[in-house]
Design brief:
homodimer; about 325 residues; alpha/beta; 434 Repressor (Amino-terminal Domain); Rossmann fold; 3 domains; six-stranded parallel beta sheet; about 45% helix; about 15% strand; DNA-binding
Chain lengths: ~325, ~325
DNA sequence: TTGAAAGCGCTAACAT
DNA sequence: ATGTTAGCGCTTTCAA
């Protein structure tokens, strides 16, 4: 691999001049520039990014930390982030945290040691303090880690209300909710949204809210229990698409039909929701747009060396399909 | 951020000594070692990875290049790779190539510039020459890019034969195939496997092989056409799970039932295949294991500085579910 | 057993 | 307009 010295030698100038044309900084005569460019071509020279990083304390690399890339919400997000960042000249490091504090910590340390320029993170376990002491631009996805920390979130409560209202409009009289983890902000918001729409109904019971943990197995079991206890239920709002798919399976297992006997609405709009039978009606988040926005914000922050204090709350959209 | 100089100063030794204890290389008196370790603790010193890379020409980073992380096959692979590599002290850079030669090229250049230590790649467009001139350990997934290049592949033909034989055992008399792209090796192998089992049957027709392109929309249309042309078809082997899901949808659209009227077997064993109704019978690849193996092989290669000339051909497994 | 110093490839003062 | 040089933080020879 040719180095800047080789280029300088071949062009008959000093390394400083080469550096100047490389970075288009300072004065360089047209003649020298030509010679340097020629030498660069001849040698197929590519600047050494590591040497640059050492000097600049920047690596043109950002970290993307998600709980688990296998969770179907994240591939699309990762794709959006990577697309956008690649366009802007950045490289993406993938981290699966499993929401494990120790793993998170070691990823953070690795990032500092490698001069990673910034971090896009979706986590419920990363505390505000640890983020603070980690002096690096951060954008948080799907959750406000700390006041004043840039975040991309969606209208969770509003979306939940849309979902439940939609079930009502469709003539459903007993609407249950499969909720997500108690510790997760968006699960709380979505549950609140549900409550606001049907919590005051005369038929409403606390036991209409079952715990699905955002996962399929738990949701299947929860739904079966729910429907056995309350056979009158004719509509379900599941807090995410995975839970909704679990609910569909449970309904089928009990010999009932979706949507005839029980109509189901999910939340997220992951690709999976189109692959099921029946296809899932869902509250779609603009996942790709979220990733794109996060990436752009982060780069802004990196360039300005100052943290924008913004929260982007993106809108959600009801996609009606066969499950309702 | 404390540097090695700070540590040396605080410990009252030279930076060389600090480096020695850091890397556990060369002679260090017990006393000096203690002092250095204490200083490291006091200062919460972490070695600067970039400076190390500059010297070592290694970055403890590897690239993972996939066509598209949104393709449901790859998240699990990425997870396996990342888990394994993180365990071994490596960081993973994610690249979505879209099988686009230009994108691939610029990723490769970025990797050279950043002293990336190796590459795990799944691509049908990366040519043998480009890989050769890219002097860096590479493991190829799901495809042999060049003779002698380490690859992880699966028993595609054998799996296809298993799938089709299984349909026969289940009493299916007219078995069709939804094939993948003509340019993709594993699609060719799977199609061959299909042919070997039923190509000699008296009822076999060339038009029983439809083109699904490994994608859902195309497979839906192909299946609809197929079943309209040949209503006698009672079994379908789809070359991947996405196609199989498309086939299920198509069968439903035509008012027929899976598996009563048409039994369907897929290939891949992606998580998605469990989420459908009916759940998909499929030939499962050991996806996680493939990623793990690839990562371990790559690290071996990096450490030994020499390329092992091995091809791992992993076995596949029939998972019987509701679609048959 | 330890330290001084060169060097990895680059950028940016500073001089000229 | 250009070159010389120090320095980014580390590792490793070489000498002591």
């Amino acid at each position: 691999m040719a180095s800047i010295k080789d280029v300088a030698g071949r062009a008959g100038v000093s390394v400083a001049t080469v550096s100047r044309v490389l970075n288009d900084k300072g004065y360089v005569s047209e003649e020298s520039r030509k010679k340097v460019q020629q030498a660069i071509k001849d040698l197929n020279y590519k600047p050494n990014a590591v040497a640059r990083s050492l000097f600049n304390k920047q690596s043109k690399t950002i970290g993307l930390m998600v709980p688990d890339i296998m969770n179907p919400f994240f591939p699309e997000l990762a794709r959006a982030v990577e697309d956008t960042l690649a366009e802007l000249g950045y490289t993406v490091i993938l981290c699966n945290s499993d929401e494990d504090t120790d793993k998170e910590q070691s990823y953070l340390e690795m990032m500092m040691q490698k001069y990673v320029d910034g971090l896009i993170v979706s986590s419920n376990t990363l505390s505000a303090e640890r983020v603070k002491e980690f002096k690096m631009p951060i954008v948080s996805m799907d959750r406000e880690i700390a006041k004043g920390l840039p975040s991309i979130i969606v209208e969770n409560k509003k979306g939940a209300k849309m979902a439940v209202s939609f079930l009502k409009e469709k003539g459903r009289k007993r609407i249950a909710h499969i909720r997500g983890p108690h510790s997760v902000g968006n699960a709380i918001d979505r549950c609140e949204g549900y409550r606001e729409v049907v919590g005051g109904e005369p038929w409403f019971k606390e036991s209409y809210i079952a715990y699905g943990n955002y996962d399929m197995k738990t949701s299947i079991n929860a739904t079966i229990k729910l429907l056995k206890l309350h056979p009158e239920i004719d509509g379900i709002f599941a807090a995410n698409d995975i839970s909704a798919i679990g609910a569909i399976k449970a309904v089928h297992k009990l010999g009932k039909k979706v949507p005839e006997d029980v109509a189901i609405v999910g939340f997220d709009g992951i690709t999976l929701s189109e692959a099921t039978t029946p296809e899932l009606t869902t509250i779609a988040q603009p996942i790709y747009e979220m990733g794109e926005k996060a990436a752009k914000m982060l780069v802004e922050m990196i360039k300005q060396q100052q943290v924008e204090q913004t929260i982007y709350r993106l809108d959600v959209q009801l996609i009606e399909r066969q499950s309702t």
